[in-house]
Amino acid sequence: MSFTTGLRCRECGRAYPIEPIYVCEVCFGSLEVVYDYVAIKRHISREKIAAGPNSMWRYKELLPVGGDVVDINAGFTPLVKAENLGRALGLKQLYLKNDCVNPSYSFKDRVVAVAATKAREFKFEAIACASTGNLACSVAAHAARAGMKSYVFIPSDLEQGKILGAAIYGPTLIAVEGNYDQVNRLCSELAEKYPWAFVNINIRPFYAEGSKTLAYEVAEQLGWRAPDNAVVPVASGSLFNKIWKGLNEFHDLGLIGPVKTRMFVTQATGCSPVATAYESGSNIIRPVKPQTIAKSLAIGNPADGYYALKTIRESGGGAAMSTDPEIVDGMKLLAETEGIFAETAGGVVIAGLKRLVTSGAIKEDELTVAYITGNGLKTLEAIQNSVVKPILIKPDINSFEAALGFKIAATVERNKSQVE
Ligand SMILES: Cc1ncc(COP(=O)(O)O)c(C=O)c1O
Ligand SMILES: [Zn+2]
Q1: Is-contact 331 353, C-beta < 8 A?
Q2: What's the pLDDT tens digit per position in 336-350?
Q3: Based on the number of CB atoms within 10 Å of its own CB, is 111 exposed (0-12), middle (13-18) or buried (19 or more)?
Q4: Ligand 1 mean position, distance from CA 297 (Å)
Q5: Within 10 A of 248 (CB to CB), how many other CB atoms are there?
Q6: Residue 353 confidence (pLDDT)
Q7: Where in 177-253 does DSSP place strands (E)?
Q8: Which residue of 197, 253, 380, 393 is surrounded by the most CB atoms within 10 Å?
Q9: HSE of 283 in the Cβ direction (CA atoms, 13 Å)?
Q10: What is the mean pLDDT of residues 147-164?
Q11: What spacing in Å lies between the alpha carbon of 260 and ligand 2's midpoint?
Q12: Mind listing the pLDDT tens digit for each residue in 232-251?
């Protein structure tokens, strides 16, 4: 049973039926899903949710899906209390939402699970996407699970972990000589011509809803409350806005108290259209040509950037940007303090969080959640010259001791005597 009643234009409010459409034919505004919240409220409760599956589908009533879903078990990832990183940054209540551990190793499994379900429901013959990398992996994985064909378009200069991480599922993988914004433009044209479900184009209103589960889970895992601050990596801005929407829906349904969460955008300095517009006090996003190691966030013309600015201002949040060396330092700091190996987007979040604490935008006692959305094994290139190299030795003790410059014989003797 689905609680969706239709689609609606975000700008002029015009109503549309549930179809694979995404833009208003009157004003060209983007469309979003409309729910029957009164009916949802009758169906949903903390207890029912808690008794649901350990995946994003425990919040199915708040997603635009009805019957069978395409499921690779996305979501319900750990919320980690980060004592060590908190100490390093000067935060007493820091939590990390670790979405690196999703089935295809990024939060994109949440959005694609919904999109793939709708693609099958709408009887498309194939699933497709324009991707900065993680979406490619997730679309290919979900298509494999659904037994559907997939066409995955990526910029040709992506990291190996993203290319191979998508290729393994057997999609038709198309590397475009251009940046993401060019790939996206091409895919928008292809979506007009081919009967394919482009998850982030013609299925976008449904797809985007999957990100709300990152708000629901955090609220539930915090014991049914919203955090004081949410620090989020931003590319198109969709994830950022949907976390805000999800928290507010939970409040409106009576599942949590008032939402006073301040929403913080984090971007790389080399691609920061949203953070830059916010800092200059503008409502206009000026498109940029991305130049950063954070390739997953390299969207120069973000589709939901304008709404992300609105979310920052509505929530009393802010924005931070970080240089490439700071992003690498952020990845290392996260790994060395908490044992979490995140991709460059995670480095953007940690480096941004550091700035936000230093500037006083985020305070020591506030409950802060940093969203870690993708796995570090996909962006090895970013850190390969910045981490310790293995010490190469021959397979004998002498070689080991010579290499490390010490003798451990004495330690062995001492251990022996303790055993005796
Ligand atoms: C790891 C990771 N985090 C965050 C994002 C940002 O998502 P959005 O485009 O919804 O802003 C992306 C987008 O590709 C991503 O790959
Ligand atoms: Zn409209």
Answers
A1: no
A2: 999 999 999 999 999
A3: buried
A4: 6
A5: 19
A6: 98
A7: 196-198, 229-233
A8: 197
A9: 4
A10: 98
A11: 30
A12: 999 999 999 999 999 999 99
| Residue 223 binned pLDDT confidence (cut-offs 50, 70, 90) | very high
- Give distance in angstroms: CA of 188 to centre of ligand 2: 19
For the chain, which residues make up each domain, given as ranges? Answer: 79-105+209-382, 390-420
| Atom 14 in ligand 1: residue holding the nearest Cα | 296
Longest CA–CA separation in the chain, Å: 85
Q: How far apart are CA 406 and CA 4, in angstroms?
A: 68
Ligand 1 — pocket residues by CB below 6 A?
A: 106, 132, 134-135, 233-240, 296-297, 343, 345, 373-374
Alpha carbon distance 248, 82 (integer Å): 25
| Nearest ligand 1 atom, CA 232 | 4
Joined together, the tokens standing for residue 86 give 């908190």
**pLDDT for 405:** 87
With a cut of 80, say whether residue 416 has pLDDT above it.
Answer: no
For position 418, what pLDDT does the model report? 61
Burial tier of 40 (Cβ tally within 10 Å: 0-12, 13-18, 19+)? middle
Rounded to a whole number of angstroms, the distance between the first and last alpha carbons of the chain is 68
Structure-token match 């590397």, residue found: 175
Mean pLDDT of the chain: 96
Q: Measured from the CA of 239, which atom of ligand 1 is nearest?
A: 10
pTM over 0.90: yes
Q: Are strands 262-268 and 318-322 parallel, antiparallel or unpaired?
A: parallel
- The model's confidence at residue 415, banded by pLDDT at 50, 70 and 90, is low
Residue type, 50: A
User: Does the structure show a pLDDT above 60 at 323?
Assistant: yes
Taken in order 38, 42, 47, 49, the sign of the CA dihedral is negative
AA identity, residue 1: M
Phi/psi of residue 296, nearest 5 degrees: -65, -25
Looking at 3.40.50.1100, 3.60.20.10, 3.65.10.10, 3.40.50.2300, the CATH number of the domain 79-105+209-382 comes to 3.40.50.1100
Query: What is the distance between the alpha carbons of residues 43 and 325, in angstroms, rounded to a whole number?
Result: 49
For residue 308, give both structure tokens. Answer: 């992300």
**pLDDT given for residue 197 in this prediction:** 98
Choose among 284, 244, 291: nearest CA to 263.
Answer: 244
169: burial class by Cβ within 10 Å (0-12, 13-18, 19+)? buried
Q: What is the DSSP string of 306-336?
A: HHHHHHHHHHT-EEEEE-HHHHHHHHHHHHH
Which of the 8 DSSP states describes residue 377?
G
